[in-house]
Backbone:
């Protein structure tokens, strides 16, 4: 009896470590967004995006601080945070979803869809994003590009500036993952 | 058997502990992973002036502000008849440049009273978010002004006007502000004004004042602002009033516009804080309409780390 329990104990503990290794994290993920109009091009980049993938369930989560976006013009950084995205009230943008038909064991590159909820400016919206997943010896990297409509997230643009800010913003992302250890 | 029970107990605790980790939401896991760096409050005020006086805000490194500050007013019982728009205009034109993120230099000239001024502004402390460590933003302000114009009436020249050094005045301010919530910020500004000379012996050369100012955001781009400067030891040779302003700030892209109603005719700090000659009301000659227009040029156009 005693030995069985001991065995079970080690098994669960061992299994526990195993499951933990199924989670991979990216701490310096990159997200950039671009707004191209004839009047003005706006570009911003965030190099401190966090992302975690649970390989056992194919679940992915992404979280970033809006204040960490850097702009070419320092005043834009201020306007972005204070007047548009209101980062005092909604400091983060997040994504939570699952990678459809993703096989973690497959080496090389595979293109998959990620389906889930994107939350920006306190508004959550269901999106599907195409991504390429690179698996080299168990090290994963995700990259892709997609577009969001400004009006979907209740971001108010004053009429005078509608020609300066594009109606759809293109977003590129890249995450490089490493095993997650608490 | 007792031993067994002990073991089982440990066993279940461990299982429970493990499962609690697995059950945790992935986003919650990420929340704990954010680096623990201090987060600073941004945009306590948006512009470097609340309305008539300086705010704690500086322009960032490599940013040039081209600024005009104007006051419009009517002359009561004007013999020449009423002008179409206003009788008098005074404008201060200035350039203000961010040498570093914390240090701004500016210089300008005012048309009506002929004051040329230069200032340095240094951001000493920044308010931090979600912590009690640094609840205030503190900025030091120092200006020097030179009054080039001599008024015809001797009584309006409260300083001597013979030597260059007679016409100088210096203003030092400690600007302390707190952003209470995303919409409301307030500032208190202990102020010391030193005038190099006094034409009348009874007038103090050193004057103390306390400025208070606040802004309330109405929307993403519009805020309502107010400012009041309480003068502790006013001039004796002339009657002066405390400067007050109530206005609206409108910030759009590279342009920032400020509209206000005020009783301060002068624009440079030492002059409007100590030598405002009329009270705040809507009578001709007392009511001043103020308009500040700021255009911002960025000289460092690359993606850089800023906070």
Residues:
């Amino acid at each position: 009896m005693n030995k069985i329990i001991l065995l079970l104990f080690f098994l669960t503990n061992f299994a526990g470590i195993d499951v933990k290794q199924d989670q991979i994290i990216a701490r310096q993920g990159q997200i950039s967004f671009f707004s191209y109009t004839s009047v003005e091009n706006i570009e911003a980049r965030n190099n401190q995006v966090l992302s975690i993938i649970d390989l056992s369930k194919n679940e992915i989560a992404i979280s970033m601080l809006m204040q960490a976006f850097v702009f070419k013009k320092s005043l834009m950084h201020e306007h972005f945070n204070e007047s548009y995205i209101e980062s005092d009230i909604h400091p983060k943008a997040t994504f939570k979803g699952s990678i459809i038909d993703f096989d973690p064991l497959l080496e090389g590159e595979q293109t998959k869809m990620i389906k889930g909820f994107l939350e920006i400016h306190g508004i959550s919206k269901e999106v599907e994003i195409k991504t390429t997943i690179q698996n080299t010896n168990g090290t994963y990297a995700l990259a892709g590009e997609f577009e969001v409509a400004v009006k979907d997230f209740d971001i108010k643009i004053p009429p005078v500036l509608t020609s300066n800010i594009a109606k759809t913003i293109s977003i590129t992302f890249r995450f490089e993952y490493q095993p997650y250890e608490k | 058997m007792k031993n067994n029970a002990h073991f089982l107990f440990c066993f279940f605790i461990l299982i429970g502990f493990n499962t609690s980790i697995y059950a945790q939401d992935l986003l919650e896991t990420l929340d704990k992973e954010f680096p623990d760096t201090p987060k600073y409050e941004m945009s306590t005020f948006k512009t470097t002036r609340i309305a008539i006086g300086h705010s704690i805000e500086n322009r960032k490194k490599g940013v040039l502000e081209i600024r005009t500050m104007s006051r419009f007013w009517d002359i009561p019982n004007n013999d020449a008849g009423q002008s179409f728009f206003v009788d008098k205009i005074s404008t201060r034109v200035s350039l203000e440049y961010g040498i570093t993120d914390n240090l701004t230099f500016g210089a300008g000239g005012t048309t009506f009273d002929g004051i040329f001024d230069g200032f340095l502004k240094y951001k000493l402390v920044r308010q931090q978010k979600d912590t009690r460590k640094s609840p205030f933003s503190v900025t030091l302000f120092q200006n020097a002004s030179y009054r080039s114009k001599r008024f015809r009436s001797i009584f309006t020249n409260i300083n001597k006007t013979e030597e260059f050094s007679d016409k100088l005045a210096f203003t030092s301010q400690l600007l302390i502000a707190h952003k209470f919530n995303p919409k409301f910020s307030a500032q208190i500004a202990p102020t010391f004004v030193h005038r190099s000379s006094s034409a009348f012996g009874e007038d103090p050369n050193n004057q103390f004042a306390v400025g208070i100012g606040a802004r309330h955001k109405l929307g993403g781009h519009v805020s309502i602002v107010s400012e009041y400067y309480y003068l502790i030891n006013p001039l004796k040779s002339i009657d002066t009033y405390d400067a007050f302003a109530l206005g609206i700030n409108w910030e759009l892209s590279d342009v920032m516009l400020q509209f206000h109603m005020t009783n301060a005719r002068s624009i440079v700090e030492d002059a409007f804080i100590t030598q405002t000659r009329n009270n705040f009301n809507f009578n001709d000659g007392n009511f001043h309409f103020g308009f500040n227009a700021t255009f911002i040029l960025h000289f460092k156009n690359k993606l850089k780390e800023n906070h």
Q: What stands out?
A: DSSP finds two helices and ten strands in chain A. Chain A touches chain B through 55 residues (CB under 8 Å).
